[in-house]
Amino acid sequence: MSQTAKRNRVTDAERYRAVNAARERFLAGDDRVRGVRPEVATSWYRCREQYRVDPGLSQAPAASAQKESSSEHTLEHEIVFAQLGGAAASIASEVESAGGVVTVTDGTARILTVQGDKTTLTRARDSNMAPWSCWSEAATGTNGMGTALEAPGPVLISGPEHWCRGLDEWVCAGVAVRDAVTHDPVAVLDVSAWRSNLPAQAAGWLSKAVGGARAILRQRAHDSGAELAAAFTQTRAQSGQGLAALDASGRVIIADEAASLVLGVPARVQALDPAVRWQPTPDFRRLARHAIEQAQLDHGWVGSTQVVTELSGEPCRISLRPVFLVDQPIGTLAFFGSEHGEPIERERHEPGLAPPSRIVGVSGESMILLRPLEVQFAEADGNDVWLVTEEGRLQAAVRGIDKLEVELSGGEFLRVHRRFLVNLSRVRVVERGPRGDLSLIMDGTTHEAVPVSRRNVPTVRRALGL
């Protein structure tokens, strides 16, 4: 063995011991984890605080025991699974020659197929890395398949980076395939090895294999957007009400002038690019998902409810009618000023969806767990999110301010601008601008000012009782 190889081997062993020691300290209650990659430390936090996974597990549970396994696969998902299965088969010989295995899971990390080196497959069965076992973080802790569902990109989990000690002999790399509209995970492709590092080309295998599945979902998103725009155009000629077309995630494809005033989005009556979509206010994500779920059960379903408009603060009646493409619901037409169809219950608070007790920040190689009160506001810089605290600016472990907003929903935090998420309990002064705009002065030592976008002014005024 060369001197370089010996040095690398020692370095790997030292890193293994350091990460293992950090995990043990974290299990004992230490909140400041050092020497562990942020994505791993964040996963550990979810496993300890949110999922409460037993770190003593040595194998994954059966999927039938998991709540997630009750989810139904759509025809679109089945097409993606078939494409990924073929892609996995195409790289199986390369993975096998490297002594590894390749797995395909659905969007809940339930394994659908596993293939590769026979010896490693035997080891995999000992860990229940087999079809119909569940490898989500909620079931099996930090691992390549489950953590890929939580992360924005590919993940590599090695040795004691796994939450469960019984999985420390594995090295695994996973990447999720996500819906191009909702960004929900549809499937995961993972390559794993036993007691050995993955070859450098493993990243290329994954990238090549998931490319086709992502292309299918992108084309589906384009087709669904075009179909929703066409349904809008056809219906608008027959309807005298405010009308908008919403995709499956509640974003606006197209809206007429009356609907645009309610939703706070640009008005247009002719479709341009069906891939261009807006996030409306109020938030239609829950209503859109509810409509899709009901339409899958009953193609004739129409629902109705009331939403509060941003401009007036008054409730507005709305009806939702699903739109279909190849017998699958792809979104809804929203009729404003109409209340026909089955009443949709207003969202009720669920204990399991309470905001987290801690927010994870990263400083160098340290993970810092902050109480929500310690964070004045969060600021987006592309996909990076910065937390402004009394300890200075810390990078959030979460990628994307949209995801942080969802995680903190139900608490004191409010999105006041596309780039800013503010802790309302830390607002000290509200400054009015000459054109009715607002700035929020925070109560920290630096008294930083946060701008409020014009569309969010009514919401901020109501939230602060102004």
Automatic annotation (TrEMBL):
Instruction: Output the PANTHER family linked to this UniProt entry.
Output: STAGE 0 SPORULATION PROTEIN A HOMOLOG, TRANSCRIPTIONAL REGULATOR-RELATED
Q: Does the keyword Amino-acid biosynthesis apply?
A: no
Q: Where is the HTH LytTR-type domain?
A: 359-466
Query: Is Cell inner membrane one of the keywords?
Result: no
A Pfam cross-reference name: LytTR
Protein name (Swiss-Prot/TrEMBL): LytTR family transcriptional regulator DNA-binding domain-containing protein
UniProt keywords, alphabetically: DNA-binding
Question: What InterPro entries does this protein's entry cite?
Answer: GAF-like_dom_sf, LytR-like, LytTR_DNA-bd_dom
GO MF annotation, one = DNA binding
